[in-house]
Amino acid sequence: MLLALLTLAYVFARRRDRRSHTARLPVERPQRQRPRFSRTPQQPPQKTHAYHDTRPQRERVIDLHHRGGIFRVTDGAQIEGYTHIELGEVRVDGGSGHEARLKRAAAQRYGAANALVRVHEVRQMQRYLAGTGRDGAPTFKTREMHEWRAMAVQAAPMLPDMMPPQTYREDLVLIDGSNVMNWEVDAGTASAPSLRPLAQVLAALKARGVAAGVVFDATAGHRLEGRFLNHSDLAARLPTAADVLVVDRGTQADWVLVDMARQQGLVIISNDHFRDAPSARHLLKQKGFIAGEGVTLLEPRA
């Protein structure tokens, strides 16, 4: 009986000691993980397919000279606010870039063309001579013919504010100085704008007995020398005398050029599109490009 009690007491003592020992053991707590921010997976860089015109400046300017004269392309038969005279139909092969190719074709074929109307696509089966058979008889095949067609017109504005001058002066022109000073950059012969192209244009005009007025925007000096240059500063840097105007800060030089050209009947020398000045649409503009040690000026065209 005593042995049984001792055995039972021993068993309870062991259980108590085990519980005590367990309580004294250090508790292993799971280490707290530092929070990790989910990072947006980086996408591989997208390949851009922006078109970069690698043609020489001469080709680009001549192409712009032709296409820039076509101010409107429409599939309609009329242009609101304009009357027009039909000059003839132009056609180009189907495919992308048809609008630019129609403009080029119209400007090259009809010097007075300035708009395209009734632009439409034509697809039809065409029978053509493919050769001769063994017996010498002709053999024919068919293929799909794909073209774009348009009517080239000479459009004239009906609004007085859009009408060009009736006559232009031959002894004086306006020069877009902020545009011309970038001609060497456009030609790839310089990395920064300069007054050299402008000096070459002034020399070419002087040789023809033509004077010039030059209009700059307010930032021209900063782009040339990193600081503001006023009328006198820029005029003093030109080897050929010219009347120089630097417009006030916040004033669009294009609008000043256009207003002066319309009021005084002056041709504008610039490669600019003047998209921000719709009233420049029908003014005569003269484009040019770097040619060797000088410049070439194309015939004026609206």
| Number of beta-strand segments | 11
Shape: elongated
Whole-number tally of structural domains? 2
CATH architectural designation of the largest domain: 3-Layer(aba) Sandwich
Total DSSP helices: 9
Approximate strand percentage: 25-35%
Distance linking N and C termini: 129 Å
Q: Structural class, please?
A: alpha/beta
In the CATH scheme, what's the topology name of the largest domain? Rossmann fold
Q: Which sequence of SSEs, written as H and E, runs from N to C?
A: HHEEHEEEHHHEHHEHEEEE
Q: List segments where confidence is low: pLDDT < 50 over at least 5 consecutive residues.
A: 1-14, 16-27, 34-42, 45-51
How would a crystallographer describe the biggest sheet? 5 strands, parallel
Which range best describes the helical content: under 10%, 10-25%, 25-40%, 40-55%, 55-70% or over 70%? 25-40%
Descriptive account of the structure:
The protein has 302 residues and is α/β, with parallel strands linked by helices. It has two domains: 101 residues, no CATH class; 137 residues, 3-Layer(aba) Sandwich (Rossmann fold). It contains nine helices and eleven strands. The longest helix has 23 residues. 24% of the residues are buried. The N terminus is likely disordered.
List the helices and strands and how they pair.
Layout: H1 2-24, H2 57-67, E1 72-73, E2 82-93, H3 98-109, E3 115-132, E4 138-157, E5 172-176, H4 177-180, H5 183-187, H6 196-207, E6 211-216, H7 220-225, H8 231-236, E7 243-246, H9 253-264, E8 268-269, E9 285-286, E10 288-291, E11 294-297
Parallel strand pairs: 1-3, 5-6, 5-8, 6-7, 8-9
Antiparallel strand pairs: 2-4, 3-4, 10-11
